[in-house]
Amino acid sequence: MAIPLPGEIGQRARDVLAGRVPVVPARDAATVVVLRDSPLEVYLLRRKATMAFAAGAYVFPGGSVDPRDADHAVAWAGPSPREWGAVFGADERTARGLVCAAVRETFEESGVLLAGPGATTIVADTTGDDWEADRLALIAHELSFAEFLDRRGLVLRSDLLRPWAHWITPEIETKRFDTRFFVAALPPGQRTRDVGGEADMVAWMPPAAALDRAAAGEIMLMPPTFSTLTEMCEFGAVGDVLRADRVITTIQPSAAEVDGEMVLIVPDAGQLAGQGDGGGGR
Predict the structure, then answer these.
(1) How far is CA 152 from CA 67, 118, 126, 142, 145, in A?
(2) Deepest of 38, 121, 144, 161, by most Cβ within 10 A of its Cβ?
(3) Residue 193 lies inside a defined structural domain of this protein
(4) What's the structural domain count of the chain?
């Protein structure tokens, strides 16, 4: 699929391809597709129009890896960082950071916490002033994820996550991310909430409904989000998604000049209607 790159982004694409401007390094990041049943729905956030990356787009919870996410002090249950690294083609330290970032960012951006008092238990409720204080402290980097889990006597439950995809932002972008996508079920008893921050709206939507709204121009979806939602349409229930046998292949859209016009080539992303210019992130 070729997406037109008009105006300034098109000129930047030409400059990058010609070597006139440097390529910005991609930062490690994690995104989690939170799912619930009856019918199958995904949790989406609309990024504020003032954001430097993907402004106004509907995205899944996620964000950059904090250096402290790779801390060995993070209490852990489930598949090890080494096992996750094998799945995503990453070294053990990077994989540890990715999984921790996935759980931390999901809590920060939705209030959903994939952790519990033990390896077979999970927090039933994350509402209340004390939870909100901890969430805000995590966002402000006043509290590390390891400290947060320790003070609450919790362990990260990596077994509640499943790997889904790997997208890297095109080299033409000024902000770039090397993003691993995970999927997870909304834990029993927990509920999402509008937590503010980088988002100005949140919603649960069936994947097909989100795609229909994008096609109608009602919402904007980045290519990775569009592609993921398209894949989710193949499933009828959360359990089906979690049981899917995924082989993770890295996808990195690239710019090219076609008939004198700059376009973004997005491999294996389907009919990308109603999406933004960038091809990496959420």
Answers:
(1) 21, 12, 12, 16, 11
(2) 161
(3) yes
(4) 1
